[in-house]
Amino acid sequence: MLIALFEPDIPQNTGSLLRLAACTGVALHIIEPCGFPFDNKELRRVAMDYVDLASLTRHVSWNQFLVYKQEQGLRLVLLTTRATTYHTIFEFQRNDVLLFGRESSGVPQAVHDVVDASVKIPLAPGARSLNLVQAASMVVGEALKQTDLWPA
Which residue stretches of the chain are H helix? Predict the structure, then answer.
């Protein structure tokens, strides 16, 4: 299982995802281009020393990431408010890529068109969305629980 972040906008969120990845043992893949210089000091400030503990892979483009996904036999699961299936009833698998979109705009239709599944988090009426890292923490936790992949 791994987390993939599509063209991130906010270095603080990316840094927090690096920390989440390090603490859960789930690899983080960044699909570029990023909306900030990837060596941004804010990224390191938020991730602190967890940058060195995380398994991080960078892909220079969406197409390069898709080649990697195909070669590794991974299933692509997009977290999106447009989904109809809640993450709590979805059946996660060990070979899942948990894909999260840009903070500002999510993912383009071309990405929606090629994912294997889409899930959403149940929200209270009137609520639009959670912060990216809050959402990722919830979905990663559920996926790890279902697949018995919690780090020992």
Answer: 11-24, 41-47, 62-72, 109-112, 132-147
Domain locations along the chain: 2-147
User: CA 130, CA 125: separation in Å to the nearest integer?
Assistant: 13
Task: Please give the span between the terminal C-alpha atoms of the chain, in angstroms, as a whole number.
Answer: 16
Q: Do 6 and 102 touch, CB atoms closer than 8 A?
A: yes
Q: What's the pLDDT at 27?
A: 97
Q: What is 2-147's CATH number?
A: 3.40.1280.10
Contact 11, 132 (CB under 8 A): no
- Asked whether the predicted pLDDT for residue 152 surpasses 80, the reply is no
